[in-house]
Design goal:
By secondary structure, this protein is mainly α. It has 24 helices and no strands. The protein starts with a helix and ends with a helix.
Length: 538
């Protein structure tokens, strides 16, 4: 009996249970990034880490997701969809438990890498499964329910994690995910149809490993550069050489191989090349504020963890609004829609460059809602325009590159931003202490002497802490300026795209949003565009 026949025999109740399990899996996947962002300041204090070191908890997780996601199709073809899905969810449960039990920063980073790599295939597999087990006329409802899981996670997760971190501790931000993760695993393990005979397909290990090593070395260079003084460190010199050699091997192999891991000839398509550039910029803007804001608010502004969670959760509310706006995005020229979204992102970043230590939670919440709404608005038309004039047989490979670049952009830009904050804080501190001397008349004013008496060691200590705080806030404002520049650069790039043809757009939208993995047999892969087209046609 074929797998298609198995799915047709599923009862309505069993399909609904699989839908709930799949939605929980997708929700957990998107919740983990925001949950960790909320508790980063508390982890930094507990682990005695610097801001750039604690950011590795997020950056290396996203990097692992980026590298592992293109392997989804090969895993399904080699081991079967049910076995791959259940193994990945079980690994996600174990790695989440170990993250909560991690005794050191190094251990926590290791398990976050495992969590990202083993959880990466779950999203495309969950959505591919739902498209297969439900009839075509119900695809729109199913994808809508699955999309709601993507939206609700970023709203509920950070808020609950912030409250638990304040009341109990940061480890419960991971432990709170375990019951839901176990429930999702049991649902998938007990309800998914059994796999049929799998096939052996060729996987380009040379291209995959050379690209992974090159990207890993670049990430390490950006992460350790500020602390090790860049190329003054022998470690970073070695990492740079290894990265350059690996990238050369990847390029040479991709050009000469018959079936490379990533086909560079795809870049000859104008919309696809510009789409790859835009999705990289999109990835750079999507997660960076959520990583740097909690540390600023907790350590320098003085917000409690619960309030930080509410501020980060507001971004999910904006994403919910953007999700509903995206349902009508087909009526608008994707280029204008993307340009508007990126322009609003630039304005929200510019808004953050004018904040100070007295910023209110409501101001940050509104700003987060605007950013979340823009993220929801931009992604759908970006998917439309990128794949609008691409041949259907090339879409699965192009989708893999599309999501790879999105995650790489996030990971690398977070590291660049943290490095900028560290360097700028030191430079700002050095400039500010130049005016702190006995000859500065401002230090003799009564209202200044009362708080920072430079004649005593306690007063000097308080004065140093205040200078450090002000230098850090200026550094974060500079980082928001960098965010604004990136968003502004994306606006003209979006307008250079060709207008999407309606027929092609209908296929590209659900393929990019659903991120359905290629199926092991041609007979299974062929119906997916038709099923996906009907899922978003209405």
């Amino acid at each position: 009996m074929s797998q298609a026949a198995d799915t047709q025999e599923l009862t309505a109740l069993r399909r609904a249970a699989i839908l709930v399990s799949g939605m929980l899996t997708v929700t957990l996947y998107f919740t983990t990034i925001l949950v960790v962002s909320t508790v980063l300041p508390q982890i930094q204090g507990a682990m005695s880490a610097t801001p750039d070191e604690v950011s590795w908890i997020v950056t290396f997780n996203i990097l692992a997701i980026a590298i592992a996601t293109p392997m989804t199709g090969w895993l399904v073809a080699r081991f079967g969809r049910r076995r791959t899905m259940c193994t990945c969810v079980a690994g996600f449960v174990l790695s989440t438990l170990m993250c909560g039990l991690a005794p050191s920063l190094e251990t926590l980073i290791f398990w976050r890498i495992v969590q990202g790599a083993i959880g990466a295939p779950t999203v495309p597999l969950a959505q591919s499964i739902l498209l297969d087990i439900y009839p075509k006329e119900q695809h729109r409802f199913v994808m809508g329910m699955n999309g709601m899981g993507v939206i609700l996670g970023p709203i509920i997760g950070p808020t609950l994690a912030g409250q638990l971190a304040e009341d109990i501790g940061w480890r419960w931000a991971f432990h709170m995910l375990l019951p839901v993760s176990v429930l999702a695993f049991l649902g998938l393990f007990l309800l998914l149809p059994r796999d049929q005979k799998t096939e052996r397909i060729r996987f380009d290990w040379i291209g995959f490993l050379s690209l992974s090593i090159a990207v890993g070395c670049l990430q390490y260079l950006l992460a350790r550069g500020p602390r090790l003084d860049w190329f003054e460190s022998q470690q970073l010199v070695v990492a740079s050489i290894v990265g350059v050699v690996s990238f050369y091997v990847f390029i040479a192999h991709s050009v000469t191989a018959e079936k490379p891991f990533l086909d560079l000839r795809l870049l000859t398509n104008r919309n696809l090349a510009l789409g790859f550039l835009l999705v990289t910029l999109f990835g750079m803007l999507a997660f960076t504020p959520m990583v740097i804001l909690p540390t600023l608010l907790r350590q320098h502004v003085g917000y409690p963890d619960a309030l930080v969670g509410w501020v980060i959760g507001s971004r999910g509310v904006g994403g919910l609004i953007g999700f509903f706006l995206a349902m009508w995005i087909e009526r608008i020229d994707p280029r204008l829609s993307m340009a508007t979204g990126f322009c609003l992102l630039a304005m929200s970043g510019l808004w953050l460059t004018f904040i100070n230590i007295d910023v209110t939670p409501w101001e940050l919440a509104v700003n987060g809602m605007v950013q979340g709404m823009c993220i929801g608005i931009v992604f759908v038309p970006l998917s439309i325009a990128t794949f609008s004039d691409l041949e259907p047989r090339k879409r699965p490979e192009a989708l893999g590159v599309f999501h790879l670049l999105r995650n790489l952009g996030s990971s690398l830009f977070i590291s660049v931003t943290i490095a900028s904050i560290v360097a700028s804080t030191g430079a700002n501190y050095a400039r500010m202490i130049e005016v702190l001397n006995p000859f500065n008349p401002a230090l003799s004013l009564p209202w200044v002497v009362g708080a920072w008496d430079a004649s005593t060691s306690a007063g000097l200590s308080r004065l140093s802490r205040e200078v450090t705080r002000q230098a850090s806030v200026i550094a974060y404002i500079n980082a928001f300026g960098l965010f604004t520049i990136v968003a502004a650069c994306a606006v003209p790039a979006a307008l250079l795209l060709r207008r999407a043809r309606p027929a092609a757009a209908d296929v590209a939208v659900p393929a990019a949003v659903a991120k359905a993995a290629p199926q092991p047999s041609p007979s299974k892969a062929a119906p997916e565009p038709d099923a996906a087209r009907k899922a978003a046609a209405e």
